[in-house]
Amino acid sequence: MRNNTRQRILEVSLELFSQKGFSAVSIRDICGRVQIKESTLYYYFRNKQAVFDELVSLFEKKAEEMMKRLEEGLNGGIFPSNGNFYRNVCDAFFENYLMDDFCNKVMRLLQIEQYGNEKVREIYDCWMFEKPLAFQGKVFRMLMEAGVIAKSDSVYLAVKYYAPISMFARRWLFAGELTEEKKGMFRREAYYHIERFFAEIKAGE
């Protein structure tokens, strides 16, 4: 029962935080939705900031695990020239990260709070831009070394590849309620971009 209550506090807090922002949500709001007394929340968490910190910690752990799996795929011989590689990467990054209910809500929360909190901005930048770009740059370097694509600037290619995807994510996945229709729009635009991108860089060899 205790674990269920703690988990319910986290779930409700994230739902409210991702909709209104951290500052606009009170302990009373959370307790009212969970249907517990404020003293019960304080049994599990020192304050509202502790709830926020726990959510971010859980998110970072999940995101780290996803990036680790992708890196292991590269290092373990699942090479980028393999026809299934990019589909697997997209499935992992799109379906299990950007469109994962928990990760999506935390990313929305970070997106809201980054403007007033430097630490939050750094976390948002890390997981929305820095880590994905670093991984993609590594993929392009491997493709070049294998002769799959022509030698070029891997950092530039990573930005050119990822910039539209991040734009589509902000347009469809991080604005308002995440619906199946919005997921479909994101998939359609993101996969179309990916197909065009690789057709263009191969044609330009």
Automatic annotation (TrEMBL):
Entry-linked InterPro entries: Homeodomain-like_sf (IPR009057), HTH-type_Tx_Regulator (IPR050624), HTH_TetR (IPR001647)
PANTHER family associated with the record: ACREF/ENVCD OPERON REPRESSOR-RELATED, ACREF_ENVCD OPERON REPRESSOR-RELATED
Official protein name in the record: TetR/AcrR family transcriptional regulator
PROSITE patterns linked: HTH_TETR_2 (PS50977)
Protein keywords: DNA-binding
Pfam families associated with the record: TetR_N
HTH tetR-type domain segment(s): 3-63
